[in-house]
């Protein structure tokens, strides 16, 4: 089982994104998690394509782009051009999800599908074969620094069961409220990739915080 940490730049100092990128480059985190918000799908606006392009130039690590925007299908080609490796869209935001996931793969990226806390795992039943990663939201999306929703642990196990039943090699990512105290349990429930914003960039020593999450 891989144990991948994807630090969320939403919690980084936006005035010094280059420093944040260098910190993650020097750490054991293998991915960069970039949260794109449109103020419509979620009640917050974060950053968009120019920031993704800029960070692409700052790292060779995996760019893991989490779209919290309505009609994400409109921007698949743009995020490919910006350098995304994984492009994750929300089940709740894409009417023709099957086509959207296919188009992400056709564009040459890995396709992720995200589930809000209220959305059952069964929502991905018919798209498991088109999915490279399932993102279980363990907070309601929109903001960093929220508390982990405890029932997400069982949800991760149910997602794992579904993927096994479908013979899918898709990764499971957990996003929201992850920290050194709950990381071990989340990995044990079946997660492969943990996103951490506040637990990394809010720490005195982000590199050590990443190390702690991996070794949790
Ligand atoms: C929330 C975002 C998360 C967020 C996580 O909508 O999808 O990626 O940055 O932040 P923490 O780890 O602080 O909960
Ligand atoms: Zn995210």
Automatic annotation (TrEMBL):
Assigned keywords, A-Z: Carbohydrate metabolism, Cobalt, Isomerase, Manganese, Metal-binding, Zinc
Name of the gene: rpe
GO cellular component: cytoplasm
Cofactor(s) needed for function: Mn(2+); Zn(2+); Co(2+); a divalent metal cation
PANTHER family in the cross-refs: RIBULOSE-5-PHOSPHATE-3-EPIMERASE
Similarity comment text for this entry: Belongs to the ribulose-phosphate 3-epimerase family.
Cofactor comment: Binds 1 divalent metal cation per subunit.
Entry-linked Gene3D superfamilies: Aldolase class I
Enzyme Commission number(s): 5.1.3.1
Organism: Rikenella microfusus
A GO MF term: metal ion binding
Binding residues annotated for substrate, in chain numbering: 8, 66, 142-145, 175-177
NCBIfam families hit by this protein: PRK05581.1-4, rpe
Catalysed reactions, as listed in the record: D-ribulose 5-phosphate = D-xylulose 5-phosphate
CDD domains per the UniProt record, alphabetical: RPE
Active site residues per record: 35, 175
Database matches in Pfam families: Ribul_P_3_epim
EC class: isomerase
UniProt name for this protein: Ribulose-phosphate 3-epimerase
Function noted in UniProt: Catalyzes the reversible epimerization of D-ribulose 5-phosphate to D-xylulose 5-phosphate.
Involved pathway(s): Carbohydrate degradation
Binding locations of a divalent metal cation: 33, 35, 66, 175
Alphabetical list of HAMAP family matching this protein: RPE
